[in-house]
Write a structure and sequence with these properties.
Length: 137
Amino acid sequence: MEGIIRFGVSMEEKLLKQFDRLIKSEGYKNRSEAIRDIIRKEFVEEEWEEGAIVAGAVLLVYDHHKRDLVSKIMDIQHNYHENIISTQHIHMDHHNCLEIVVVKGKTEEIKRLYGLLKSLKGVKYSTLARASTGKKI
């Protein structure tokens, strides 16, 4: 780990009070760690905007009884096997499933994969959690 450098941050009192409430509710022990996390998050977003090799997770909630939906999801996943690290399939109830697809690759490939999955008829909810490979943060 690199050495720690101290520096000052100036802000309005109201904003600082809001920040202190936020970091307390999030469980941070101090402002420094919260600020470091905010900065890291911005660097992750920058990686995604630059088109770097990134990581993430696609979450899908869908009705597995929807005709051909499971087959279409599998076909898409097989077409993107280079980008898919892992999948987890969870039965939420008799009709609904949660699929978690852990991905890694160039930003445009991951976005294309996500676009194909989320637009399938029968997908009730989807989101793409953006993450980093950790190399740049």
